[in-house]
Amino acid sequence: MEKLLEQIHLVEQKHLYELYKHMVKVFENTNLPSHDALHHLRVWLHCRGLIIELHKAELDIPNDLIESAIVACFFHDSGLTIDIGETHGKLGGQICRNYYDQYPNIAIKNIDAIVQAIEFHDDKSVKTGVVTKPEDMVCLNRLVSTADDLDAIGIIGIFRYIEIYLKRGIPENEIPKKVIKNLKNRFNNFTNAYSSLHRFTDKQRVRYMETLNFFIELDSEMSQGLDNPDSQLAVFKILKEQLVEKKQSIDKTISFAINSSSASYPLYFFSKLKSELNVTSAILIG
To answer: Please, what are the domains in the chain?
Structure first.
């Protein structure tokens, strides 16, 4: 384990801050807080955690895999700065290739495999491929797409789904059902591949259920035309009005929600969202 952690540390020393700074620059003219540079950092942290769990399960982690994974994680959604649609992966792959063409002094192996992982990170056909042997679990494509899926669950996942689905122009009343379908597909792909990692999957299942239950309740509230200030719909409306329509930052949206709401669920939701986002930011400070 010490050897793997040292490898991860060396790769992060070499790449993490430069990749993060570059993603901040890539997204500087794109108002998409749920998929910004911090999202890319979170996806890397999910990927790193998955790699560690696989090592604990005595799977071999190739030396080049860690470096390929951090690069792919940090570029996977960069194509959203050009096209917010579901085909942004190919654009992200090109952005990554252009970056390393521009800086040939940064030695990167396996660039073709990295670009492919970026291009196909949201391709369901790749993720639903059957895991027939342990080595399939350490496939770069699967690791990157799974790490992205893990960032789509939990409180952060709720914020992520609501913002991007609204910005894609999906009618409000259709969003919960579309999210539920997408969410179940993501989690099924995850468990199909990694169910042998029992503790890890149990931990992720708790986060998944919080996200799933949120959208089930939201669907029910929308269907019944309820307007309860202490509800999932109240959270949805704050994110819609502040984050999407007024184009406030997520920090200002959270502050608005905490300062203006006296209802318990919105206060719980936005306090927990703030806490989860702060954990990611603390990685950069540390």
So the answer is: 1-140 (1.10.3210), 152-286 (no CATH)
